[in-house]
Amino acid sequence: MSGTSVDAIDSALLQCTATDAKILATHEHPIPIALKRQIAALSHSGSDEIERLGVLDRELGILFAEATLALLAIAKVQPRNVEAIGSHGQTIRHRPPSNAATKSASFSLQVGDPNTIAERTGITTVADFRRRDIAAGGEGAPLAPAFHAAAFGRAGVNRAVVNIGGIANVTMLEGCELRAGFDTGPGNTLLDHWIAQHHGEQFDRDGAWSATGRVHRPLLESLLTDSYFHREGPRSTGKEGFNLAWLASHLSAFNGLPTRDVQATLLQLTCSTITDAIARYPLTVSEIYVCGGGSHNTHLMNTLRAMVSPATLTTTTALGIEPDWVEAATFAWLASRTLKGLAGNCPAVTGAIGGRILGGIYPGANCNFTSDNENN
Length: 376
Known about the structure:
Distance between the termini: 41 Å
Strand order of the largest sheet: 9-8-7-10-11
Number of helices: 14
Shape: globular
Order of helices and strands: EEHHEEEHEHHEEEHHHHHEHEHHEH
Helix content: 25-40%
Mean pLDDT: 94
Structural class: alpha/beta
C-alpha cells in the first residue's frame, strides 16, 4: 500500500493461517517525484481530472507490480508460489458518510489499477477494499482494526493500537475483542507539509524541528475547535479535512508566529487528539502500541508517552510486527479473508449495516481457469 503520506509503497510477504499471520519479507519501494506530484494534484479538484486520473491509475498499477516483483526477488520466492496480492492502492479522495452531504454522495477512491498488477505479476490481485463497506453504509475506514485485533489482541489485557500515518487512527481492544476503531485526525500530514513548505524537507526527522519550538496554546485551542474532534461513533477523515488550507484558516488570527512554534503546536495537536480520543472511550487501557511513520518521531513518541502515563507506550515491535509493516500486512490479511469468503470489515468500527466480504478479485496467471474454447 501507499498511505496518505505518499512516502513509498510498503509491501510485505505474509504466510497466513487460520490463527496466525507471519511476515516473511518486506520491501519499501520508492515513488518517483513526478508521480508524487500527480497524486498531490489529484487530491483536490482541478481541470482535466478524468484524463489525469486514468493515466495515474495505470502508472501506479505498473509501480505496484514492480514493488511486488522486487519484494519477491528479495524473498527469493517465485510469483507462481504466491496465492494473491492484496493491494490497497493510493487514496485520491475519501468522502465518508460522516463528511458527505448525503450517504449516497459518500465515496472513497483508490488508484493503482489491479488489472495491471495482475497482468504484470501473473498473481491474482485483490483490490478496492473500501467501497463495499461504504455501499453498506459504512465509513470505508479504518479497516486496520480488524487485523489489529487478530494480531495484537491478548486475553485479560486492554490495549490501544495507534497507527500514525498521514492520518492517525486508534483501535481499542478489550482482551481479544475489538471494541472500537476510528480516525482521530491528523497524524503526520500537517507536520510533513509545514516543514516541506518552510524547509524543503519531506518530514521532521525525530521531531527535531518541532522540539525547538513552543506550543502556542491559543492556536492549539483554535485548531481543536474543529467539529471532527468532537464526533462520537464511527468516523474517518483524510487530507480533504486536514491540510495547509485548513491550517491557514486558523493561522490568519495569529500573525507573526515563528514557524517552529507552529510545528510544535501541530505535533501537540496530533498528540492531544490521539490521547483525548483514547481517554473519551469508555475502556481503560494499560498498554498502547504505536505503528506507522509517526513511531519514528522521537519527540512525538516522548510527548505521547508522557501524556498517556500511567499506561505504557511503545511500538508494535514489542508484539512481533515492526511498525512500518503493519498496514501492508493488514491488506495481505484482508485479501486472504476475501479469498476465503470471510468478512473483512467490522461494523462496530465503520458503521456498516453488517459484515461484508471486501474487495474485487482480479485473476492472475496463477489462477486455474479454462477458456470457453477449451471447454468446447
